[in-house]
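INFO batch 0412 | record 1 of 1 | parsing
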Amino acid sequence: MEDTLFQLKFAAKQLERASKKCEKEQKIEEGKIKKALQQKNVDGARIYAENAIRKKSESLNYLRMASRLDGVRSRVQSGIMMKSLTKNMGTVVKGLDKALASMDLEKVSAIMEKFETQSEQLDVHSSVMDSTISDAINYKRKTNRGNWDESNMKLATQAVKYKEMTLRKAANEYSIPKDSLNRRVNKSIKTMPDNKPHIKLLGSYRKVLSDAQEKDLTQYIIKMELVFYGLSINELQRVVYDYVVRNKKNHPFNTEKKLAENLRQYP
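INFO prediction complete | emitting tokens
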């Protein structure tokens, strides 16, 4: 059992390091986005934005798996100390030890689910042990509620607002309290009556882009907002201007400043 505990702890540390590595790679991709936009390379910036979002997702997935492993390690250690591991649970733990040795994350996840199911069904004979474990789990959950990450909140809000995820799925995916996420989404939607970001020309200017191009531009802007957690008005105007010029469209925009100044910020 001591070897298993060590393997659990070691694997969790490996996953945490992998998460930090993905965070560093995400920042590198974000730097490439800024450089590409400065060079008016919109296609390149789009690719870098997708890479940054993917690295962010990978980082969170590694972190969640590390958290699950640490939770199992804690419960196994508590069971050993209180001598409450059943024969079936001991067999599962041995299987987990083998899976950890090969770092097969899919197999590790399946075994952990089996362990967690048996752990929930276990009749604890000591009322003191039951109370202690319950208090520890509840304390951990309360701590999570108070320490959710603001960047995760923004990503979850975007996902719900643009109907990419349900409220429940986004709350679970980004480790955000559902009630807090719901309030943030409702607050954000108040500034967007049609529930989608859109760009509207002021005055009597004719339509510059086709419906398909507007949709493509909107999706691109959404990705930029996810990566940079929002865009300033000038950044938005520059992105739109570059897109219109790249598509060789006639436009009423300021060619000296290279900004789409006739646009209004998202409602």
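INFO post-check: The two ends are 59 Å apart (CA to CA).
INFO record closed
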